[in-house]
Structure formats: structure tokens, C-alpha cells
Design goal:
Four copies of one chain form a homotetramer. Chain A contains four helices and four strands. With 133 residues, chain A is α+β, with helices and mostly antiparallel strands. Chain A starts with 5 loop residues before the first helix and ends with a helix.
Chain lengths: 133, 133, 133, 133
């Protein structure tokens, strides 16, 4: 298993913060490794307190299923095939803002979760973070 | 970060109780500080037991995202952008009754959560509490 | 079942605060009813954050077994008859600071838990609170 | 209440990593704010996975009671005045490695928790982190 290093995780966080500053938003940013364990976390000043947990849950949710969190959310709606999957794994977050992180060879080495603004901003910041490697 | 004092929190609780008595309802009233820690709580006689926890979760939810809990609930519906956000932070309550508390300068210093009647009454009582400062 | 009223619970809290001020300590004070449900809580300014939970657990522990929390702690030591009873009920606190509250007829109507200083101070403040009725 | 900024928290983490490298150890390092909310976290490569949670619990425990975690551990032993306090607050860690963080005026603005080696190393790294401000 390829696994994200702390050096890589910090690059992801810093790229996410840079993107947040460009957008004028205050974010919580979490990076987990290939085993869904937390590697790095930063809470920007005045970012929502409730997003500390959400950013970590987004990162884990993305790695749990190797897809953007928003994709899972499409399937977890009432009547959907994964209805209420959020009850598993001590709580999933299935709206956008969680994105897998790949190395240069395309192997998934972790995931980043971002929370603190609209889900569009959250996803844009997470994507900017994941693209830093 | 400005933080609510016990003296202020007790004023919030007393104003909420006064409003509850005017409305003829029995409420649970919780006040948390800027860090979401509980500062004061009162359960009116014969208020719902299940609302002890709900009032505290409403107060924390309001401070977690710096908005009325009912605003979050509009976005967490099926198909909404924050669907099932309630699974985060050991359980959010996203219907009305949680309101942030500001000091005279407009700084958020805590939040109040009220539960025990209709969500309209809950919100009215919480607002009366928050307005006491 | 006789049960403590909010008016009585507030008298307990105020007596506990008065005693805390006399001792020069900062306390968290929780009152539960005969069913172990929270009725009133106050956190004095600058009291320990970790004692918010402990004060509530002390109050519940006292009512769970109808005795001072310190009495249970004597039995929960290694080799004791109630070794590690603290694992039950989502966590007990079995050192001093939790005291049952009785009405004028000697009926147990609730309990008070206090945390924020030495266990001797905690117990003295809890006892002052319970004696207010 | 004064509160640690992200810039300060990152200085604490970086100083802790530098000390860890000097000692030749692999650490998990967590920084919480004055309200015990997570602000920054780094897991050094190959640091123990079980220490991700422990470092965060140490940081919170230090701030919960405004003292080094090891001081609490002396009192929570069998027969001690705070025996089994670890059952509170969703789990405390009371051996060394958690240290409060103060600003230049002596105000507590947060805490740092370190886990990954002996408790002596954990404490030394946490202290180096806290001293960076």
C-alpha cells in the first residue's frame, strides 16, 4: 500500500489554505492516509467549530469508498440505493468536500476533507489540495 | 475570543423562562460558551425529558455554524446541500430553537438552545433569551 | 416518586455558589432529579472545562446508588467488591463531590454533583448545596 | 478568553517536530484551543497509529484542568483522590505528554498533546512545543 507522507499531507493542507484565501473563506482541512488515519489537520482562524469534525469525516468518507463524498450523497438520498449509509462508520458526511489523493502513478494514498463554506467552495478547496501533489 | 460569563448566561436563562411562562409552555434551556462548552442549564417543571439533550444540541449546533439552527435544517433536507449533516459532531439538531448570543459589540459569545414545545415556540423563547443581553 | 423542582434545584445551585465563593474556588455545579435527569447546571467563570462533565456524572452517580460518590469509590478500588464499576452507565465518577438531595420528609428527590477543586472542597460545596432545602 | 491562532499552533507543531527529530522519535502532535477544539495536528511518518487519538486526548485533558496531564495521573491512581477520572469527558489520558500553552501575558490559550514514545519523551516534546510561543 502506498501511503501519504507528512510532507505530502502538509503540501495538501497548504495548497488548500492558499485556495481558501483566494476565495476569501475560512476552512477546516483534514488529511487522512490510505488507512483512513488522520495525518494532518489545520483550522483556519474563525472557521466554523462544527466543521472540525465534518472535515475529518469527509476525508474518511472519501477514502472509505474511493470517491468524492458528493458522489455517495447522490446515492444516499431517500429511495436511493445507499439510503442512510451515513449511519455507518461512526458517521459519514456525504455532501461535497471530500476528495481522494493520488500519487503520480494514480495510486490512492489518502484523502482530504474540507468544511467551512458552501459545498461548492468546500469541494473546490479540497480539489486544490488534492492537486498539489 | 469574547466569552459569555455565568452572570450573562443566567440572564439569558431567566429571560427564556419568562418568555416560556408568557407562552404557557414548559422548556429546557441550555447556554453554551464560545467554545461550545455548557455554562448554564434549567429544566422547567414537567418539561419533556427528551428535550434536555435536544436543547443542549441546539445550542451547540447554533455556535458550531454561527447561525440559527433552523437555517441549517433548510439545507439538510433530502436533496439539500447539507443532507444528513446531523451525523456529525455527535449529533446535531437542525430544527429551530438554537440561536447565537452576541455581546454589545456584535461578537458571538455563545449560544442558547431551547426545546419543549413547537419549533416556533422553541425559537421564540431562544430569541427572547438571546435578546436579554 | 417525589421529585426536585426547578425552584429547589436553583436554591441548591445558589447555595453551592455561595459556599464556593466563601472557599475561593471556581466550581461546576449540576443538579439531577430523582430520575437522574439534569434539572439545573451552572459553570462559574474560569472553572475547569473538564469538570462540566464530571459534575454531572457525580450527580448521577450519587442518585444511581443513593449514596455519596466517595462511598462508592471506596468499593471500586482494585480488589474491592465493585472494582471498575466506573465502566457502567456511560461512565461513573466515584470520588467525592456527589451527594443526594432529600426533601423535608427524608425522601430522595435528586442529587447534586460538584467539580472544580480538591475532592474535599467539591464535597463541602455539594453538601452545602444539598443542605439548602 | 484569549485563544491560540493557527499561526501560533503551527509554530507549536513545528517546534515539537524539531524536538522529536533531535530525540530520534516519531510523534503525533495535537494542538487544541482554549475551548478544547482541535486547531492543528501532524502525524510524523511511521508514528504509532494508536497515538493519533491519545495525542488529542492529552491536549484536551491538559486544557480541561489547566495542568500537565502527568499531574492528574498522580492523583488518579488506585487509592488516589481522583481514581478513575479517566472515565469522564469521553476519555482522558492522564500520563505525561499534555501541556498547556500560554501567551506572553501568561494567559492559557490552548494546549498541546504528544504521543509516540516514552512518556518522558512525549512530555519533553510537548514542552518544547509549548515553549515555542
Amino acid at each position: 500500500m502506498s501511503n501519504i507522507t507528512l510532507e505530502q499531507a502538509r503540501k495538501v493542507v497548504d495548497a488548500a489554505i492558499k485556495k481558501s484565501e483566494e476565495l476569501g473563506v475560512k476552512m477546516n482541512i483534514a488529511v487522512v492516509d490510505a488507512g483512513t488515519n488522520l495525518v494532518a489537520f489545520n483550522k483556519m482562524d474563525d472557521a466554523w467549530l462544527g466543521s472540525i469534525d465534518i472535515s475529518q469525516k469527509k476525508a474518511r468518507t472519501a477514502r472509505y469508498f474511493n470517491m468524492d463524498t458528493g458522489e455517495i450523497g447522490k446515492l444516499s438520498q431517500p429511495g436511493g440505493s445507499l439510503y442512510n449509509i451515513e449511519h455507518s462508520n461512526n458517521g459519514l458526511i456525504t455532501f461535497p468536500g471530500g476528495v481522494v489523493i493520488k500519487d503520480g502513478s494514480g495510486n490512492i494514498i489518502g484523502a482530504v476533507g474540507v468544511s467551512g463554506s458552501t459545498v461548492e467552495d468546500d469541494h473546490a478547496v479540497a480539489s486544490a489540495g488534492a492537486s498539489a501533489l
